[in-house]
Amino acid sequence: MMYWNEPIETMSRDHMHALQSERLKDTVSRVYQNVKFYRKKMQELGIEPGDIKSIDDIIRLPFTTKKDLRDNYPFGLCAVPKSEFVRIHASSGTTGKPTSVPHTRKDLDTFAECVARAICCTGGTREDVVQVAYGYGLFTGGLGLHDGATRLGAAVVPISGGNTRNQLTLMQDFGTTILACTPSYALFLGEALAEAGVDPKSLDLRIGIFGAEPWSKEMRKKIEKDLNLTAYDIYGLSEIMGPGVSISCEKQNGLHIAEDHFYPEILNPDTLEPLSDGTTGELVFTHLTKEAMPLLRYRTKDLSSITHEPCDCGRTSARMSKVCGRSDDMLIIRGVNVFPSQIESVLLEVPEAKPHYLIIVDRQGTMDTIELQVEIDDKYFTDEIAELEKIRKKIKQKIDSVLRISVIVKLVEHKTIQRSEGKAKRVIDKRHI
Ligand SMILES: [Zn+2]
């Protein structure tokens, strides 16, 4: 058994409660003093820093949303002068203004600590060769894994995303043992490996650290088989830090949260009431140590649940379930809640289908339509219309019964749907255009 930071990772719940309480009090007084946004919100709620006596008082504090980050772009929520920044990350502004996330030197130190802890939790050591195939740049995946693996003392291959042929070559030549990327890119790399005729067993790969998008357990099984490794979930978001906020361990029984730095809550997304352990709701995080831009009760929109039961791996931290979707990714079609992950799970159970798909939602008159384009394995893509129709009907039947609505299924040839080197785009919703 190996821990990166044993005193923290195996701390008793009482001690963790005391540590979190101290850190929350400090964070609240810093934002009250330095961030006008929070001072005003707290004044509106009639609370002062002195009212926060322990972590249990967190429910009295105001929320923060993505919109608040946009409205205060770029540095309106910062609690330190700009001269303290040593790096500024930013999200791509796909829907309007981007959001920025500055870090102080101590913030980057925490980031590296959390990612080193995470890699260690998957069984990684300084002996490993870590191929970082997450994008480098404003997105936190690349630099986050890079700094954490460096802190661990492993050998980093900073290849970034894309350049698939080169990924395979270096994987073979350098003896890569840990691959870090998005699950959709891991799936693609597995496919490319098979096409190149490389037996995955001939590689040294043993651990995959995948995150930044939701993925099903069926997809995980496929990636593990195609790349001959054990896959681990890494979770994070740039607003809070980036990858390393939580990580799954060898027991594969939820993701351990670095809750000495990030306090998690699960709330009912509609009423914002706290939910009990084991109930799925919206994940909310509060920074406990962040210097540059500490956020109180940041609403992630990610859906998950939490348990505080100790894990068989010996770690005592709260564990979150794998994110099962986003409250804002959920499609509501004819009044029914549809998650893209449900479709992915079905496709991975159909041998003729590839797990590459595109969901197109449209509206005809007042009626929502949902079309699903599915790639078919070359082996099954014949000129025999009757054969193809049989496959199409089989997929449609399975999807309809899982989603409980009727879906238009279209079969397309292998490699028709655009591949992603980062996060996959699975849904086109034409209703909002
Ligand atoms: Zn564990």
Topology summary:
Blueprint: H1 6-9, H2 13-34, H3 36-44, H4 66-71, E1 85-91, E2 99-104, H5 105-121, E3 129-132, H6 140-152, E4 155-157, H7 164-174, E5 178-181, H8 183-195, E6 207-211, H9 217-227, E7 230-237, E8 242-248, E9 255-257, E10 262-267, E11 281-287, E12 298-304, E13 306-307, E14 319-320, E15 325-326, E16 331-333, E17 336-338, H10 340-347, E18 353-364, E19 367-376, H11 385-403, E20 408-413, E21 427-429
Parallel strand pairs: 3-4, 3-5, 5-6, 6-7, 18-21, 19-20
Antiparallel strand pairs: 1-2, 7-8, 8-9, 9-14, 10-11, 11-12, 12-15, 13-14, 16-17, 18-19
Helix pairs in contact: 2-3, 5-6, 8-9, 10-11
How would you describe this protein?
The chain is α/β, with parallel strands linked by helices and 433 residues long. 31% of the residues lie in helices and 25% in strands. Strands 4-3-5-6-7-8-9-14-13 form a nine-stranded mixed β-sheet, with helices on both faces. Helix 5 (105-121) packs across helix 6 (140-152) and helix 10 (340-347) crosses helix 11. The longest helix has 22 residues, at 13-34. It binds zinc ion. Zinc ion binds next to loops.
Our measurement of the CA-to-CA distance between the termini, rounded to an integer number of angstroms, reads: 53 Å
**Strand order in space, largest sheet:** 4-3-5-6-7-8-9-14-13
Helix and strand composition category:
alpha/beta
User: What are the segments in which pLDDT stays under 50 over at least 5 consecutive residues?
Assistant: none
What are the distinct ligands in this entry? zinc ion
SS summary, helix count: 11
Radius of gyration: 22 Å
Helix content: 25-40%
Give the CA-based shape: globular
Provide mean pLDDT, rounded.
92
Percent range for β-strand residues: 25-35%
**How does the major sheet shape up?**
9 strands, mixed
Q: What's the total count of β strands? A: 21
